[in-house]
Structure formats: C-alpha cells, structure tokens
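Give me structure tokens for this 78-residue protein.
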Amino acid sequence: MGKRCQLTGREPGFGNQVSHSQRKTRRRWNPNVQRKRYWVPSLNRFVTLTLSTKAIKTVDKLGIESVVAQLRQLGVKV
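Here you go.
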C-alpha cells in the first residue's frame, strides 16, 4: 500500500534524524494512512479508499457522495 492519501495527497516527509551529538542520518515521516471502505448508494457498491485520518474526518463531514464526485473530477479511479 502506498503511503499517499487519495483525497488530500499527503505523502511521506523526508529529513534528518538528529541525535544529541548532532549526528545526522536520513529518515522519513510517514502519514497516518488507513484503508477505509465506504458504501456509495449512487454506485450501489462499496468503495475502498486510502485516506489519511484528516481525510476520513473530511469524508464524515462532507459525505461520501461529494467526496467520490470530487475524486472523479480529479481523475482518480474509484
């Protein structure tokens, strides 16, 4: 599963792990991405989306119908 949110586009961040002695090694910060399954009445089927936790809250607020319409407008296969 790719660490990318389908709705917000949130991806891993990259940078340095800095120790107490100021030694620097490369690291990455992964977003909290979950696979979530929603029932979409207009399509009469379930849709599985890879969403960040912020995007899950957005879907709860706006509704799955409007989010699916927005994703289709962006060209994401749903």
